[in-house]
Structures are given as structure tokens and as C-alpha cells.
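in:
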């Protein structure tokens, strides 16, 4: 399963969203089945590093983006993505206009935050430190909401079912199956890992939202 966060230049908002998502998935031991990436939809994106002040800001919150280099959204990225997640409605429109194949799997990030007061996560003309906090606080609950969403759970379940189906086909349609040795049982299909009960409570003082708690729901691994 592939998630792709998209902003304009792929050096700020989508980088923060990608880093937070990787961090949350690793904590919940889901990083092995969900891959996370980011890209830009603007004309100037490509092989740029996030600003030093942003790298330092996210590093203080346990997120390493030191190796990140910006890249543009491509048709191949669209093809392999399970979900494409832009930051603003304008970016969403440009994605769907440029890549018609993105229809049906492109959703605004803030759609996954039930308490969001605006659909867009914008870069505002404020002091840099204040602006970074504003964007971070908008992205944080939305990424948690994405991970806990029913849409994500369904995609993970479909991926698990598809993997099981492919394993059955591989086992059942081998062109030259090996004959088991005398007295040795043929290997049985390995069972799928059990469903993990994922629970994570986010304190309101962390988000600055007055007691907001978001629980990550059951996701089939």
C-alpha cells in the first residue's frame, strides 16, 4: 500500500505530513505494509532540500528529513499510489486535471480531521516559527485521522486479502511442483498475521485543541 502526500514544492507541508505518517506507522508497527512518499505539483519542484530551520524544527519532534529531496508528481507515482493526499483544494484540482487517473483516490488531507475549521492547509505570511507551528498543528491530527480512517482500514484489508490470494495462486499453480519426500508433509499456506488492536490517545495540550483525543481504530495488518 502506498500513500503519497502532495504540496506545491515538496519541501514543507508534504514533507511534514510524510515524516509524521512514517513516525506514527512505525510506532504502530504498520510501516512494513504501508509505504509513504511525497511529491510536488508545482513547476519549481525537484531535487531541493527542506530549509535548515524546518529540518531542525521536525528533528526536535522525532522526525528526520535530512535525506529528503523534492520531486515532482508523475504518472508513475499516480499509478502505484493507493491514496494521493494534497494539502489544498487548488492542488487537488491540479492533480485531477493533470492526471485523470488520480480520480477516485485523491483526497484532501484535512478531510480526515473531523475538527478542521478549513479544508486547506496553507502557508501563511507569518513569522516563520509561527507559520511552522500552525502548519504542524493542522497536519498532526489530520494524519492521525487518515491512519484511523475506515478507508485506510479497507485498503489494508484488501491488500491483505490480495496477498493471501496471490500466495494461494502461487502455491496452487506452480508449473513443476516439487514432490514431497517420503514421510515429509508438504508445507501448508502460512496464515495471515492476526488483526492488531491499535489505540493511541493524543493529548489536547500537544495539539493545542483543548482536550482533543483521537483513537486509532482497528486496522487489519
Amino acid at each position: 500500500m502506498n500513500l503519497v502526500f502532495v504540496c506545491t514544492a515538496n519541501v514543507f507541508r508534504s514533507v511534514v505530513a510524510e515524516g509524521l505518517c512514517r513516525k506514527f506507522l512505525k510506532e504502530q508497527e504498520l510501516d512494513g505494509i504501508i509505504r509513504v512518499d511525497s511529491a510536488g505539483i508545482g513547476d519549481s519542484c525537484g531535487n531541493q532540500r527542506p530549509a535548515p530551520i524546518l529540518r531542525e524544527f521536525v528533528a526536535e519532534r522525532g522526525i528526520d528529513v535530512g535525506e529528503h529531496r523534492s520531486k515532482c508528481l508523475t504518472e508513475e507515482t499516480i499509478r502505484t499510489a493507493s491514496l494521493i493526499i494534497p494539502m489544498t483544494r487548488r492542488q487537488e484540482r491540479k492533480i485531477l486535471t493533470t492526471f485523470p487517473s488520480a480520480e477516485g483516490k485523491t483526497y484532501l488531507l484535512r478531510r480526515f480531521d473531523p475538527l478542521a475549521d478549513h479544508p486547506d492547509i496553507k502557508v501563511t505570511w507569518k513569522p516563520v516559527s509561527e507559520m511552522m507551528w500552525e502548519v504542524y498543528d493542522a497536519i498532526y491530527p489530520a494524519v492521525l485521522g487518515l491512519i484511523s480512517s475506515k478507508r485506510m482500514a479497507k485498503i489494508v484489508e484488501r491488500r491483505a486479502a490480495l496477498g493471501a490470494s496471490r500466495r494461494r495462486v502461487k502455491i496452487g499453480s506452480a508449473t513443476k511442483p516439487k514432490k514431497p519426500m517420503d514421510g515429509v508433509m508438504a508445507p501448508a499456506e502460512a496464515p495471515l498475521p492476526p488483526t492488531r488492536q491499535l489505540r493511541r490517545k493524543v493529548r489536547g495540550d500537544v495539539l493545542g485543541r483543548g482536550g482533543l483525543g483521537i483513537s486509532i481504530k482497528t486496522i487489519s495488518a
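note: The chain has a mean pLDDT of 78.
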